[in-house]
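Hi P.,

Sorry for the delay on this. The queue was packed all week, but I finally got your sequence through. Input first:
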Amino acid sequence: MSSNWAFNLDMLAQNGVLDYDAASFIMGQPPRYVGAPDKIPPFVSGIPTSNSLNQLNKDEFKKQNDTNIVHTPVWKKWAFGLIMTGALVFGGYKFKSKLIPMIKAVPSKFKLSSIKNFFVNKAKSIGNFFKNLKTKTKKP
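Then the structure:
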């Protein structure tokens, strides 16, 4: 055990919450300062002072005006947009021989029957999962 818990119990004893040496009681040792007047109390210099806490009268949210937040200037946003548009146009120009046939082939890939078969197969697999769930979760 660390010494923190014993220190906390000593603070409670010094402030009158406990009337015995709780740390020695827990460890099964003879008392260090309560019931043994020849021992030195744990706090020779007196009770440590705590800062007074300034509690609010009500719970509220106060908005803070942060002026340190970085705001991106408008010209940087426009410059980034132009660079990205230029990159897309350049990429389209360089790869147009590969993109145009790919775009023309898209409608033939998506037929009504293929979409229907996709959803029917997925529904069957989900149904089989729940049907077999009972056998999968049985205890061995």
